[in-house]
Amino acid sequence: MSQFIESIKVEDQEIFLLDLHQKRVNHTFSHFGKEDSIDVAKIYKNLQHDEDGLFKLRIAYDLDKRIRTQMIPYAIPEIQDFQLVENNSFDYSFKFEDRKELEKMKMKAKAEEIIIVKNNHITDTSFSNILFLKGKDWFTPSTYLLNGVQRQHLLKHKKIKETEITLQNIKQFTHFQIINALNDFDDMFIYPIDRIINLPGNEEYLDL
C-alpha cells in the first residue's frame, strides 16, 4: 500500500496552511479512487500539542486511513551549496513517503543539496520548491515536481510569479531561495545564484 506524507508547520501551537494541506490529502485520496479522506485538523487536535516554538508535524498515511504522526522540533536549514542534477524520468506528483530515488540522486551529488533538472527545465530541490530573483520580482518554475502548499499560497497572494526556467535562462536570475510548508518566503535566507556549483557554462556542469 502506498504511503504518503504531509509535513506541516506548527509554531507556538498554531497550525499553518491547514486548508491547503487538507486539500492535497483529499486530492490524493480521490485520485486513487477513495471517497473519504483523513481530517488533518482533527489529527492535530488529538495530539494535544501544547509547546511553543517551531515544529514539523509529520503525518504518514495510507489509503486505508492508517496514520503515524511525529511532532519534530524544526530549524530552517542553511545550505552551503547546490548542484543541478538531471533526471528526465523522475515523478513526484504526489507526496510519497518513499524518497529512495531522491536520496540516490543526493548521494551521487558533490553538493549538499540538489536542484533537479527534467527535460532541460528547472524543477525543485530534493525537499522544496524554489524561487528565483530577477530585478525586484520573485519567480517559481512552472515545471515543478510537486505543487507545494507554500508555493500555492504565495502565488495566490501574488507575492511570486510563475515562469519557465530552463538551463538556458537560469543565469538571468541573480538569487534564489527555497520554500516549503516549513520554509516561508524569507529575505533572510537568500542564496546568490553562484551557490549552484555547476551552472551551465561551468566546467563541472552536470558532471556526476
Describe the model.
This protein has 208 residues and is of the alpha+beta class. It is 19% helix and 31% strand. 27% of the residues are buried.
Top keywords for this entry?
alpha+beta; 4-stranded antiparallel sheet; globular
Characterize the largest beta sheet: strand count, sense, and whether it forms a barrel.
Answer: 5 strands, mixed
**Structural class of the helices, strands and pairings?**
alpha+beta
Count of DSSP-assigned helices? 4
Q: Give the CA-CA distance, first to last residue.
A: 34 Å
Residues in helix, %: 10-25%
The gross shape turns out to be globular
What's the helix-strand series?
Answer: EEHHEEEHEEEEHEEE
Alpha-carbon Rg, integer: 18 Å
The spatial strand order of the largest sheet comes to 10-9-8-11-12
- Unreliable residue runs: none
Mean pLDDT over the full residue set: 94
Beta-strand proportion: 25-35%
| Number of beta strands | 12
